[in-house]
Every structure is written in C-alpha cells, then in structure tokens.
Inverse folding.
C-alpha cells in the first residue's frame, strides 16, 4: 500500500505537551518531545507551543533528528471579527510555515467555539452558524486560500469538536459553499467518530478535497460517557477520549486503502492528545508507528 505515493508520516506534539491545557506535559521539554518523535520512527511534526519561533533555530533542532514541519494550526475568527484581523495574522503564520518548508496550512474557525471552555457541555452547547455566518466563513476562507496560493500553498480546513464545522452535514455545506481550488479539507478520523459521524462516508465523499490527514483514534466508551454526562471537550481529553491509531475503536485499514486508491500525496499526522502522565507519549508513539506499519505498509 502507498507504493510510489508521496506520503509522509508525522506525529503531533500534543501527546507530549497540550496547547489548550499547558499543565498537561508542562514538565516535558521541546527537545525530549522531538527526540522521542524521531526515535519512534516519524519523519515530521506539527508545531506546538514549546517550539522555537525562530526558524533558523527550529530548522537546526529538527534537522538533527531528521524531522520536518508538516503544518501548524491557525485559529480563524471569520464569523466573529473583521476579516482583516484574521488575514493579517494568517499572513504571518503562512510566512513562518513557508520558511519551514510546509505546503499546507491548517485552519479552524474559532468564532463561538466552545472547545477551550472547561465547563461547557460539548454536545449541548455546540455552536451552530447562521446563514450570515456561513457566508462570512466561506468568503473569508476563500480569501485565506488566495493568500496561501500567493506562496504556492493550500489551506486545509480542520473540522473540530465544539465548533461550527463539526458534523458531516456541516462539512458537506462548507465544501459545497467554497471553491475546491481555494479551500481543501483536513480529514480527522477522531473528530468525526467522536461527533457520531460515519468517518468512512465523509472520506469517500470528499476524498478529492483532502490534502492533509490526522490519524486520531477514539475510546468509544469514553465518547459515549462524554455525551451522557454532559462533559466539555477539555474534560473529555483529560478523561482519555482520544488515543493513537490501534488503541481505540476505529478501523484505519479502509482509510488507508481509500487514500492509497485515490493517490493521496502529503502528510498523515498521528494526533492524539492525552495526559502524558497517564499515557506515556513515547510508548504511545511507538505503538502508533507499529500499527500504521502493519496496517498500511508505511
């Protein structure tokens, strides 16, 4: 599988140090994080809150370990703030990633998002965009897509729990209302399954728009508990709702088969935020790498 395809495998630092909850992995250094990524057999990383922003320093520390930067998260506020504010911040983020050699920019709309609210029930209080907000989002994303294209880059939209683009129906609408040339999709298995969506149906339907992949597994019993007990997204993460591929309830083999058949090119990123003192990040990185090798041949 993936023979001849230009597919690279990365892992996100969020298993070592959590951007939304810095107390998770607060004692783990940047150097430990990237060293363990390389030792586990990965060739790339996304950017975490402990990563140096000086590109010369970051390039040197990564190259010593044979790592590249796959992408980095960008929070857009297209539905809640003036477009120019998001666009200016985006250009600085784009230029940083360009210098690091990345080809795609992860974008997620955070207007009215509840993902960072510790006490807000995830499934009861999920934001729902109005028609006006959908228009602002679509128009704004296409503008960001144009800014990315200036540097021969793409934006990949990250559907995410606790935001206005979480469900399969919302992903469908976003894809329908944006230009495929300007707006691509980040496909995240874990967020789809946690939301209660058919993760394979979304993959098959939008596979031509997918230019970045997050490989995230879900502990289904904990996902059900979050819904039943009205927990927040951050409470769900602390409880261990997410894990690495091969350790939860998702079958990744059909995902790999579909991406292979479609000739997918780009990064696949293991991303599984957990409490590193409950789930040793190096141990779980090794577990993920072994599962992916056995399941996909990568």
């Amino acid at each position: 599988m993936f023979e001849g395809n230009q597919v690279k495998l990365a892992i996100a630092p969020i298993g070592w140090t959590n951007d939304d909850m810095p107390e998770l992995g607060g004692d783990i250094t940047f150097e430990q994080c990237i060293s363990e990524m390389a030792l586990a057999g990965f060739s790339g990383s996304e950017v975490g809150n402990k990563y140096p922003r000086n590109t010369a320093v970051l390039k040197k520390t990564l190259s010593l370990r044979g790592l590249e930067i796959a992408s980095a998260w960008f929070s857009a506020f297209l539905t809640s703030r003036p477009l120019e504010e998001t666009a200016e911040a985006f250009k600085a983020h784009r230029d940083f990633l360009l210098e690091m050699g990345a080809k795609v920019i992860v974008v997620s709309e955070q207007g009215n998002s509840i993902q960072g609210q510790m006490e807000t029930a995830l499934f009861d209080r999920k934001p729902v965009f109005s028609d006006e907000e959908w228009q602002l989002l679509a128009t704004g994303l296409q503008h960001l897509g144009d800014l990315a294209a200036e540097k021969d880059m793409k934006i990949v939209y990250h559907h995410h729990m606790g935001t206005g683009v979480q469900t399969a129906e919302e992903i469908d609408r976003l894809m329908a209302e944006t230009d495929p040339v300007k707006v691509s999709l980040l496909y995240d298995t874990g967020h789809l399954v946690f939301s209660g969506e058919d993760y394979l149906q979304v993959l098959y339907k939008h596979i031509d728009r997918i230019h970045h992949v997050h490989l995230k597994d879900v502990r289904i019993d904990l996902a059900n508990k979050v819904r039943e007990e009205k927990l927040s997204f951050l409470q769900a993460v602390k409880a261990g709702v997410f894990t690495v591929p091969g350790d939860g309830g998702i079958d990744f083999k059909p995902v790999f088969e579909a991406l292979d058949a479609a000739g997918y090119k780009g990064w696949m990123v293991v991303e599984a935020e957990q409490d590193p003192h409950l789930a040793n990040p190096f141990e779980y990185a090794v577990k993920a790498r072994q599962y992916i090798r056995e399941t996909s041949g990568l």
Remarks:
- The chain is about 40% helix and 15% strand.
- The chain has one domain: 7-296.
- The chain has a mean pLDDT of 97.
